[in-house]
Amino acid sequence: MTDIITLQQRIADLLGPQGCLLQPEQRQLYEKGARYGDGKSLCIARPANVDEAAELMRLCARDKIRIVPQGANTGLVGAASPDRSGLDVLLSMERIKGVIDIDPVDRVVQAYAGTRLSELNQALEKHDLYFPIDLGADPSLGGMLAANTGGARLIRYGDVRHNTLGLEALLIDPPGERLDLTNRLRKNNTGPDWKQCFIGTGGAYGVITQVVLQVHPRPQQSATALVAPASMEAAALLLRDVERNFADFLSAFEGISQNALQSVLQHVPGIAAPFEPLPPYAFLIELSSARPRSADFDLEKLFGAWLESCFGDLILDAVIDKPEVLWRIRHAISDSVRQEGKVVAFDISVPRSSLGQFRQEAAALLEQSHAGIKLFDFGHWGDGGLHFNLAIPEQLIADFPPLRINALRQEIYDLAVLKYKGSFSAEHGVGPFNQQFYERYTTPAQLALATRMQNVFDPERLLGVTSYGAKQ
Amino acid sequence: MTDIITLQQRIADLLGPQGCLLQPEQRQLYEKGARYGDGKSLCIARPANVDEAAELMRLCARDKIRIVPQGANTGLVGAASPDRSGLDVLLSMERIKGVIDIDPVDRVVQAYAGTRLSELNQALEKHDLYFPIDLGADPSLGGMLAANTGGARLIRYGDVRHNTLGLEALLIDPPGERLDLTNRLRKNNTGPDWKQCFIGTGGAYGVITQVVLQVHPRPQQSATALVAPASMEAAALLLRDVERNFADFLSAFEGISQNALQSVLQHVPGIAAPFEPLPPYAFLIELSSARPRSADFDLEKLFGAWLESCFGDLILDAVIDKPEVLWRIRHAISDSVRQEGKVVAFDISVPRSSLGQFRQEAAALLEQSHAGIKLFDFGHWGDGGLHFNLAIPEQLIADFPPLRINALRQEIYDLAVLKYKGSFSAEHGVGPFNQQFYERYTTPAQLALATRMQNVFDPERLLGVTSYGAKQ
After folding, report:
1. CATH architecture observed for domain A221-335
2. Quick check: A449 and B385 CB within 8 A?
3. Is the peptide bond preceding residue A274 cis, with omega within 30 degrees of 0?
4. Geometric angle at alpha carbon B117, from B345 and B284, rounded to 5°
5. I want to staple B53 with a disulfide (CB 3.0 to 4.6 A). Which of B47, B118, B247, B372 is the partner?
6. What fold, for B4-92?
7. pLDDT band (50, 70, 90) for residue A54
8. Which residues belong to any copy of the FAD-binding PCMH-type domain (chains A, B) (predicted)?
């Protein structure tokens, strides 16, 4: 085995001083996760192009050095962080960036994986197009594919998987082999759809170097309301009925619990209470259209009339306001809740028809076994997504050591996954942080398949820190 | 090795007389393809439920007998037909049928694989929902997933892959193992998305037994026009502009060539010429909405005004008419062309911005090397799909023996795939009929992956007649 200093030297020789970061203060930006976790790498490798990345993979494979691909380091499950051994090469894609081509007739864009979402949308703006995956962070496109990011507008546009027409990936076996799947076809049924293997698998099967995405006309008008349903049963019917009436336009159906709303009002200055008193739950409903507002097509008018017709049966109260006003409330929740205590964040999904029932049952479970902890849930209700976030008040933190939090997490997941056939990670992926839960909820048949699949793509286990296969 | 009679007996014992067809006149319905090809099976096995199907797979695997899964036998590439050896067991899923559950709030339906599309839509009707994959045939749902069917409304709803939330499949290794992926989640990022392996792979990796589909509100109003573009260059801009103005509503953008339109007018009684003279190309544009027509939201009015504004620059002429009138023309093409001579059908796609150029170049190629053959192309222009169908007039059929037709096919495919990065099979799949082209256009890197993948799912090559791996 080659020693670490020699390997660092070889990588520096291959990629140049800009391409190989060795100083601790340079590395920290990459080794520490966006919100959680950290590790220690052998070096930060920043190839300038795809050929250099392939060469780096060959170099690492020769010495059986593990590679951890990283986009913009905005992930939340540790999938792009090295472990603490100092033996992983962190492969940053940030220099392999740039939009290659935009075709406005195709509504297709091709770009390198290191391009940021914001950079893509900036380039698309002059064509009145955008990539409608709406997120809090500004990830790289390669990272978005690897994580299959969802976000608030999935109900309208689907997730990243739905909008990916093609990609290019580098395989680790044979090392650095380029798999060119960069076609732009919407219809192509010529065998296994290989790109699916690289989407949502956190870099375990290959390093995504290029993406080909379907993009969409930018909305030209929208109508946004915050709605208090008549009851939680009415909430399900409200979703069903808004889809029946506005299926063509519905671009968000977000849930906000009373506690979450209360927390925003308390901690964010300048936001007025939309309801008095606050209802147990509220929904931010957004309609939008690529067609500009006109006298004969006005979403706000259509929406307003419909909301009016729902008063009583389905709706207790509703506020129609500018999107920026209502979304500001929604986007402030995550940070506000941080001021309520130590946050335990969740990223759950269940069938959306069960959301109300799941939420009630999970809240009762908390009440019973973990009194004092406070629930501030919110989420992408229309997609079945629920950030079932909790805050442990300052004075109770000592009562909730990591082991108890882990047990609590598992109780909630057991309810979501085993009883409601839900997901313990709706949007964020597996990664080392969710590894134990992946192993708990994945069936033996799937684990067996995953083990065989790892032998297809990465028999030496040289790629990424997530392991989908059964323990050897 | 067990002899055939014994095997037939064992299968009859397992599945009963209804479940094992042996008489030639009974078998023919399954052994002969919907439109092309035929084979000879060891028997037609028709298990009554999933357990019986699993048991059958175990029985066949023990004796290394190949199984060919079949849905409603409506496929066009021979993927569900046995070869001619008389040694394949044809596994018909037609008895494993029925809708299991419809959840109108989730907009989700779960059904057995043998359920027909028409049966599904009938069950959905009372909820004002439908599965919007629009096809000429009435396939089984399992077959639709295995073929990843597209159809005329892909531009709005995506293909079957986009609308599949879950499935259940039986693996052949271990034989008959049930892989339960029947979740109903729109957001679930917990590892490799295994269902993708079974979608569009023609039964090569497993037998689909259940499907979980996202369904959609049934349209309540529509507006349909047949449009003659000012030129073929204008056609691309027309597509771009109709999407900018009606992205929320566009549910079909179908192309019809002059010859195809002429053929319909000549052979189908009661259809009046929509234009005089016929333009070189016409487009059937359909808008639809789940929202009923009202004074303040009338798609026909909006569409009419917009079409008017396009006259001159983009549009030469346009006819707004009832959907059934205009779709009747579109749906009559395939059969009309059959009356023009011997049909050579194509199922090509290219990036939609290149459709006009590809078509022109392919027509010139025909003209030059295959004079006398006549082009009647039409297709799903909005998705980049083109049925580049040809008819060989009666008096020239002798000049076009099978080898020449195959060479012609390859010339057209070479142009589509190699020059335009298109597909030789946009909607219909690979199957034995396209095997030679699959091998021609698939890269060595993909073939190598496919070979390894086959070792994951079917190391003994016991499932299906399509082979995605490299020749051994």
Report:
1. 2-Layer Sandwich (3.30)
2. no
3. no
4. 50
5. B47
6. 3.30.43
7. very high
8. 37-218
Confidence (pLDDT) at B135: 87
The 3-state DSSP class for residue B259 equals helix
State the number of CA atoms in the 13 A half-sphere of A221 facing the CB. Answer: 16
Check pLDDT > 70 for residue A370.
Answer: yes
Instruction: Give me the residue label for tokens 């996760």.
Output: A33
A236/A283 Cα distance (integer angstroms) = 11
Range list for CATH 3.30.70.2740 in chain A:
340-458
Q: Which of B161, B189, B421 sits opposite A184 (nearest CB)?
A: B421
Alpha carbon distances (Å) from A299 to A284, A296, A306, B303: 16, 10, 10, 17
Residue A278 contacts residue A262 (beta carbons within 8 Å) = yes
**Cα pseudo-dihedral A51, A52, A57, A59, rounded to 10:** 120
Block residue for tokens 């046995």: B82
Q: One-letter amino acid identity for B247?
A: A
Residue B133 DSSP class = -
- The residue behind tokens 């479940």 is B19
Q: What pLDDT score was predicted for residue A1?
A: 64
Asked if pLDDT for residue A135 goes beyond 90, the answer is no
* Residue A418 in contact with partner chain B when CB distance is under 8 A: no
| CATH number corresponding to B221-331 | 3.30.70.2190
Q: Is ipTM beyond 0.95?
A: yes
A233 in contact with B, Cβ within 8 Å: no
For the stretch A158-203, pLDDT in tens is: 999 999 999 999 999 999 999 999 999 999 999 999 999 999 999 9
Q: CA-CA distances (angstroms) from residue B376 to A257, A292, B239, B404, B462?
A: 59, 38, 21, 19, 40
Q: Is B214 on the interface with A (CB under 8 A)?
A: no
Tell me how far the alpha carbon of residue B44 is from its chain's centroid: 24
| A187: chain B residues, CB-CB within 8 Å | 150, 154, 159, 349, 380, 383-385, 423, 426-427
Segments of chain B assigned to CATH 3.30.465.10: 99-217
For residue A470, the model assigns a pLDDT of 81
The per-type count for chain A, helices as H runs and strands as E runs, is: 16, 21
CATH 3.30.70.2190 residue window(s) in chain B: 221-331
Cβ contact B186–A352 (<8 Å): yes
As a whole number, mean pLDDT of residues A448-455 equals: 95
Structure tokens at B124: 């959905």
CATH classification of A340-458, choosing from 3.40.640.10, 3.40.50.1260, 3.40.50.10860, 3.30.70.2740?
3.30.70.2740
**Integer Cα distance of B38 and B30 in angstroms:** 9
With 0-12 / 13-18 / 19 or more C-beta atoms within 10 angstroms meaning exposed / middle / buried, residue A24 is: exposed
Q: How confident is the model at residue A472 (pLDDT cuts 50, 70, 90)?
A: low
Q: Which residue of B has its CA nearest to A237?
A: B105
Give the tens place of pLDDT for each residue, A69-102: 999 999 999 999 999 999 999 999 999 999 999 9
Look up the CATH number of domain B340-419: 3.30.70.2740
Contacts of A196 (CB under 8 A, 6+ apart): A161, B193, B196, B197
CATH architecture of the domain A99-217 equals: 2-Layer Sandwich (3.30)
Residues sharing a CB contact under 8 Å with residue B334, sequence separation 6 or more, in sequence order: B136, B387, B389
When pLDDT is cut at 50, 70 and 90, the band that residue B1 belongs to is low
Q: What is the mean pLDDT of residues B265-289?
A: 96
Please name the residue that has the structure tokens 């390093």: A207
What residue ranges of chain B are covered by domains with CATH 3.30.43.10? 4-92
Q: What DSSP line would sit under B260-327, residue for residue?
A: HHHHHHHHSTT---SSSSPPSEEEEEEEEESSPPBTTB-HHHHHHHHHHHHBTTTEEEEEEE-HHHHH
CB-CB neighbors (< 8 A) of B221 in chain A: none
